[in-house]
Write a structure and sequence with these properties.
Strand order of the largest sheet: 1-2
Number of helices: 6
Radius of gyration: 26 Å
Largest sheet: 2 strands, antiparallel
Oligomer: single chain
Helix content: 55-70%
Order of helices and strands: HHHHEEHH
Number of strands: 2
Distance between the termini: 53 Å
Structural class: mainly alpha
Strand content: 5-15%
Amino acid sequence: MVGWQGSRAHNILTNIVTANILKRDIPKLAPEEQTSSLESYHNVVIRFAPKSVHFHYSAMKARLTLAILHFNENSAREQQTNSDGSKQFRISYPKSKKGGAIAKEVKVPCTYNYVRELMAMVILLRRQYPSYQRAKTLIDHTSSCYLNLHTAG
């Protein structure tokens, strides 16, 4: 095995494997580096907080929080099945295929269970705090304590 080092074939292979273009491309090919999930998340964010509309900080924060909750609940939806148990597909014509058709999975519909949980939390907080100002003061105090605790050190 030692005799092949320095041979013409070894040098060619070494040049290919250590080429900068390959070093740049490999991370893009690795499954951990795929951006499809990130692009899906950004599509959800755009739906909750469109770029064409200006939102104040608190509204934007609330909308982004809702987008996160919606994405987390629906990002791993199962594929929809027919009554006979076979998986459903639909035909898509992506621009990247220049008119060529591809089969895409049909996912089960989105769920909105996080809305029920949020509403239950709103009702609980309303019962716990007699006024909005009292609740806001407590939340502001809790948030600043949390930040001080987690940024110290």
